[in-house]
Amino acid sequence: MTEVNSLALKAQVPKTCNMCEETIEVKYRCLECNFILCERCRRFHEKIKTIDFHHIINIKDDNASLTKLFHIPILPCLLHKEENCVLYCLDCEETACTACISIKHQKHTLENLKAYYLTKTSEIENGKDRIELSILPSLIRRLKRLEHLIIFHTHKYEKAKQKIYKWEKYMKDSIANVLEKQREELIQRLDINFTETKETILPEISKLKKAKSEIEDILINIDTVMSCGDVKRVNDVRGSLHSQLVEIKSHTALKIRTKIGNFCEKEIGALPLLGEIKFKDIFQMKHVSCIQTKLTCIDKIVSLEGGLVLLRNLENNMIHEIEINSTKNTCNELDHFELDVKDISALNSGDIIFISPDKSDIRTITSKLIDSNPRKDFFDSTTFYQTHPQIPTAIHVSPDNNIIICTVEPSRESIPMDEPCHVEIYILTSLGKQISHFEFNRDLFCFPDKISSIDEMICIADSISDYSSRVVTLNKSGEVKWIYGDTSTSVIISDMVHTPLGNLVILQVCQSKLQVLDPDGGRLRILDLTNLNITHPYCLSIYNDNYILVGCGANDSNLHILEYIES
């Protein structure tokens, strides 16, 4: 390791290029020749033939590369004991010395063993870094999210069951109360009728019993008179008998009208329903964090791998790369650079892809340049794709790393906002190869200015007047699947994002509301951001799988984190 340290120390001392001996701005070292090289001489040096090939590295990586090289074990050649292996045969997949070339590896593809070792170990380290910084954290976040989701579903399941039991008891008690009341009413009606009947019949019974007794007395008197032979008594009885019979007849001639109460059972018709189970999509949001970024107006957000975020400050066109600490409600700025963009996104590689106002080219800044160059601007970018004469208005990178671009005709500014214009949509691979191209000749779109996508569905925010926007959703063939919104609704869409389950979250900037649509365009939820003390919202971004970042124009806490649950 002494040799490594000495070489590393030498690399820190300013030197001129070992080839031209003029340029001081040396950036590279040849590990085989131990030459320090400038940019121009590096290309010439690579062409100089040598037995051990040239392996040129960036000086800033010198220490790490040298350390790896000195950890490579010396491998004696199995065929030539006096030689050490300095080559690797890609065809035979084995190490070799220079003497082996003419024996076993003629016309084979050979690579310097040190270079091959460094390349492969770098690939392994890059894979390890990606696992540790991106894949594993994402997996842990997804695991926690699913664990939280099963707890959430268990709670909702138990709550729904208890609600059914409670409602069943309520229905039983309600039905019992109704039946009890009906029973009381029916019996009361029977009681009233029976009382009235008794009050009608019983007095007549008393009268008839009295008349019966009187008749029996008359009959006894008649029998007595008839047997005594007394003419005077017979005449007396005969005279009173007529009046008595008339009176008795009047009692017996009285007719009584009464009604009988009869209970008629009613069959149960339509049974009362306890209720029904309605299944609906879950989408819930809550405010979890509020961060002071010290930026005056955040109008664009791009989430990168590893929890990094790009913010655009509208006031000065500066792009800020930050790292969020949501537990402490703070952020750490890692970098910033000026870039005038109309829209911006990022590829899975970390490369930035953007469009500029009124320009027809799509440009990129590589992640390597972002990491190495502290002063980046438009001129550091390279042209990725050209849509001339069409002018791009929106750009989006899909979950499968394809690029979707919306463009309008160059004369769009001369056309009234509420009139359709010629729109072309391009879908490209991350390498710039065209997958699809859709053309709409003033028959659908007015001014498309935002794009989002999920699976094979493309959602485009289309401004159809100065005061209203709509969402036009296309399938993979470019055909309209559904449209949400029209000129009757004064809604301006400033941004929108898709969740992993295909729900579309729309930011209505004037109303400060988030509207959530399901994959078929049905409304799931509306969230009023003012109730969460979120003011002047401008932009959205999905962050770490189950969070939504909201960028605002307020000067204080202008970056908000919403956690959402969907299922």
TrEMBL record:
Keywords associated with the record: Acyltransferase, Metal-binding, Transferase, Zinc, Zinc-finger
Domain B box-type per the UniProt entry, residue ranges: 72-113
Give the source's domain of life in one word: Eukaryota
For this protein, the record's InterPro entries field holds: TRIM45/56/19-like, Znf_B-box, Znf_ZZ_sf
Keyword Repeat tagged = no
Q: Name one GO molecular function term.
A: zinc ion binding
**E.C. code:** 2.3.2.27
Protein name per its UniProtKB record: Tripartite motif-containing protein 56
What species is given as this protein's source? Mytilus galloprovincialis
Q: What is the lineage of its organism?
A: Eukaryota, Metazoa, Spiralia, Lophotrochozoa, Mollusca
